[in-house]
Amino acid sequence: MQMRTLGRTGPAVSALGLGAMGMSGAYGTADRTESIATVHAALDSGLTLIDTGDFYAMGHNESLLAEALRGRDRDSYALSVKFGMLRGPGSEFGGHDCRPEAVKNFLAYSLTRLGTDHIDIYRPARLDPAVPIEETIGAIKEMIDAGYVRHIGLSEVDAATIRRAHAVHPIADLQIEYSLISRAVEADVLPTLRELGIGLTAYGVLARGLISGHWTAGHTAGPGDSRGFSPRFSSGNVEHNLVLVEALRRVAEAKGRTVAQLAIAWVAAQGADIVPLVGARTRERLAEALPAMEVNLTADDLAEIEKAVPLGAARGDRYPSAFMSYLGVGN
To answer: At what angle do helices 237-254 and 259-268 cross, to 10 degrees?
Structure first.
């Protein structure tokens, strides 16, 4: 497995990371045994970066990872953890809390659930509009000084917020959605990251399965599947978006690759400072994703991909309208 360093100050991690959210029901029922086997397969393949959030099924995801990682050398993997998003007992979202005292509280619970003495990259899931980012980053810095955190990350914030946070303490990476159909990061955020020497971990590289090559017209999200609320999967939008996928499929097949492999490889090809995260819930999907890091895309390949999926071609926001206002950049 290739390795990439997250920015100038961040850790060296595998060039492909594993996003664990889907293992806790975000896309419908997940099989616990298969999820744990998938984490094991990822580690055995050389993946070292695992991303989670303390609000993924109200701590379920962290507890699942603790079980999957038990007995593994702690230095053989890096944990990226998001915090600050509030949930209710009915799983509803209740805003954000990134006050310094909340940072330390959330961290204490995560360390316990994960069964570890430190988090490699700790990051607020979203900007808390009621708390200056300087206060949140300052609190995480205190946890670095105390030995509980190794690096600070950000998630879904704009360029101005990145600058303010980085002025308090070096930021290792920004986690943000980035795919062939979500490219808003390219305008201001990515140049800012590169100016400051900050890495990017890209989630949603397959747009929650929409551009994986496995989602088909007429397929509907089942119970508990958040894609049932996603504008890009809604009637009218999804049919248009799947036309783009079929155009991408033709390019992929010409290279002897699957749609998913080409979509992941495209993100990885946008710079050595970018680490794609794949949300594989099964060993089968992980096995499909891994060869993407072996795909060498030429300038002609990239031009063909751009022709198949032009910038801004997708229809629908990447989140329901209630969540769009919490994003530092749009689609």
So the answer is: 90
